[in-house]
Amino acid sequence: MTPEEFRSAGHDLIDWIADYRRELESRPVRAQVAPGDVARAFPAEPPDDVATIQELLADLDRVVVPGMTLVQHPMHFGWFPSNASLASVLGDLASSGLGGLGISWESCPALTEVEEVVCDWLRRLTGLSDGWSGTIHDTASTACLVALLAGRERATDHGQADGGLARAERPPAVYCTTQAHSSVKKAALMAGYGNDHLRIVAHDPETFAMEPAALAEAMARDRQAGLLPAAVVASVGTTATTAVDPLPAIVEAAAKERVWVHVDAAMAGTAMLLPEFRHLWEGVEDADSLSWNPHKWMGTILDTSLFYVRDVQHLVRVMSTNPSYLRSGVDGEVTQYRDWGIPLGRRFRALKLWFHLRLDGIEAIKDRVRRDLENARWFENQVRDAPEWEVVAPVVLQTVCVRHRPAGVDGDALDAHTLAWVERLNSSGRALLTPSLLADGWMVRVSVGVETTEHAHVEQLWSLMQAAATDRSLDPDSMVHIDS
Ligand SMILES: Cc1ncc(COP(=O)(O)O)c(C=O)c1O
User: Fold this and answer.
1) What is the extent of the structural domain holding 35?
2) Counting atoms of ligand 1 from 1, which one is nearest the CA of 305?
3) Which of 68, 83, 107 is at the close of a domain?
4) What is the pLDDT of residue 163?
5) Number of domains comprising the chain
6) What is the best residue among 83, 141, 272, 307 to mutate for testing ligand 1's pocket, by most ligand atoms within 8 Å of CB?
7) Helix, strand or coil for residue 483?
8) What integer is the mean pLDDT of 93-106?
9) Maximum CA pair distance of the chain?
């Protein structure tokens, strides 16, 4: 494709994306396909003719869009906000169009230095001290793996430099609660700790936050038993209920054992843009690493996960390989991000953050986050005031965990009722919610925060939920009208 052909096809594609985003709200939220439907729409044999951009755009409409659950839809309240602001989409396109290669500072100095700048902007915007240095990983899962590798190596005094874990006299251990994201367990397994050395620390049954005394006891007991406490993952905003583990007590307990503290603020990091929410991560300055995802609530399109560390030298010692073909005359003067994580080749991810911050504006992003928090608070109050409805976890941010409990319905019957009404709502295509398990059974998470979700959409959701839970019609005429 020549630049002129690209220009023409690119205009068509941008028009198509703009139309798709403008008309998104009229589509069903949940994907309208059964397993295999999308794949069957493609020819089994690779086509040997050449398509036009118009043919591909028609296929996007015909095959791809029905196969998408529309997380940019204002009635999406499932999982978590996975916003893809159009400003960041433009940055992503610029990144692809530039076609840089991020394998060293020399291979693309701008890629490294824009990343340094935007990570530092976000550090300042979230009130972190200049003791932190940041990079952008693809996901919080990768960030957690890197953190657990760094923690393992600090605890074993760089054991990987000789025999690795196979020679470890004392197996290193990791600590978190059952409320930690599943990526923590995966990272612990991949970092070689082993399931037996992933220690589940008790949490408060009301707040779902880690019990720091239980952490201290677990580490002391393990040390006595010949294990090596190496890392703790504290969640600021757990996936199910956005619970916040108490960092001040956790970092204090960890410091006594010289244990690495990684703070997983994947979802809640966005709230730290607001000074009035920063008390939630009080104590973070004494942690060793932290990550959060602008690709969730803040809205910089996937994959944009910020990872900050305090001791860069240690991280680089753990992650660097330095083969001869990548050495250069400026080593020592510049940042080599390949030594801060797992992949060698890096995308120019910083551009989408830069475009997002500059084109949308920081104040507008903060206003939107405040709007979402207010909408969640309004929704919480509706649920608390409604008979037979309950809020089942403290509302810390924008996620409200609820249950509809008809009189006399309990246990398995209540679980069946919960799953049935959520499915009724989701299959209507009019909104999307995700159920989740707490210790006492299934509940429903209402995660507010899609860029286009206004107060009227939250009102609409509440009407739909009441109708779905009481088996009333989900007919549009019976609902609150949205003027948008
Ligand atoms: C608290 C928390 N940590 C980690 C993750 C994983 O994020 P990622 O998809 O960026 O790996 C999630 C995703 O939902 C999360 O909620």
Assistant:
1) 3-68
2) 10
3) 68
4) 87
5) 2
6) 141
7) coil
8) 96
9) 75
Coil, strand or helix: which one is 74? coil
CATH number at residue 471: 3.90.1150.10
Q: Which of 19, 42, 68 is the last residue of a domain?
A: 68
Asked if 80 contacts 296 with a C-beta cutoff of 8 angstroms, the reply is yes
CA gap 83, 448 in Å, rounded: 11
The CA–CA distances, whole Å, from 390 to 183, 401, 405, 435 equal: 29, 9, 7, 14
Residue 294 resides in a domain: no
Question: What are residue 173's DSSP bridge partners?
Answer: 229
Task: Provide, rounded to the nearest whole percent, the portion of the chain with pLDDT above 70.
Answer: 98
Q: Is residue 345 part of a domain?
A: no
Cis preceding-peptide flag for 303 (omega within 30 of 0): yes
User: What is the CA(106)–ligand 1 centre distance, in A?
Assistant: 32
In angstroms, the CA 152 to CA 189 distance is 12
Q: What is the pLDDT of residues 328-350, one digit of tens each?
A: 888 889 999 999 999 999 999 99
Mutate to test the pocket of ligand 1, among 80, 144, 239, 296 (most ligand atoms within 8 A of CB): 239
By residue count, the chain amounts to 484
In this structure, are strands 399-404 and 389-391 parallel, antiparallel, or unpaired? Answer: antiparallel
Residues 6+ apart with CB under 8 A from 231: 147, 148, 151, 152, 155, 172, 174, 175, 259, 260, 261, 262
The pLDDT, as a whole number, for residue 451 is 98
Distance 299 CA to ligand 1 centre (A): 14
SS3 197: helix
Residue 214 belongs to some domain of the structure: no
Per-residue confidence (pLDDT) for residue 477, from 0 to 100: 54
- Give domain status of residue 307, yes or no: no
CB 369 within 8 A of CB 296: no
Q: How far apart are CA 146 and CA 153, in angstroms?
A: 11
The ligand 1 site (C-beta within 6 Å) comprises 80, 139-141, 181, 183, 235, 237-239, 264, 266-267, 293, 305
Q: What sections of 235-361 are H helices per DSSP?
A: 247-257, 312-319, 350-355
Q: In testing the pocket of ligand 1, which one of 137, 139, 179, 181 has its CB within 8 Å of the most ligand atoms?
A: 181
Please count the other Cβ atoms lying within 10 Å of the Cβ belonging to residue 450.
Answer: 24
pLDDT of 475 reads 66
For the CA atoms of 366, 368, 374, 379, the dihedral, rounded to the nearest 10 degrees, stands at -140
Q: Measure the CA–CA gap between 171 and 234, rounded to whole angstroms.
A: 21
Tell me: the pLDDT tens digits for 198-247? 999 999 999 999 999 999 999 999 999 999 999 999 999 999 999 999 99
Q: b/e for 225-259, b at 16 or more Cβ within 10 A?
A: eebbbbbbbbbbbbbbbbbbbbbebbbebbeebeb
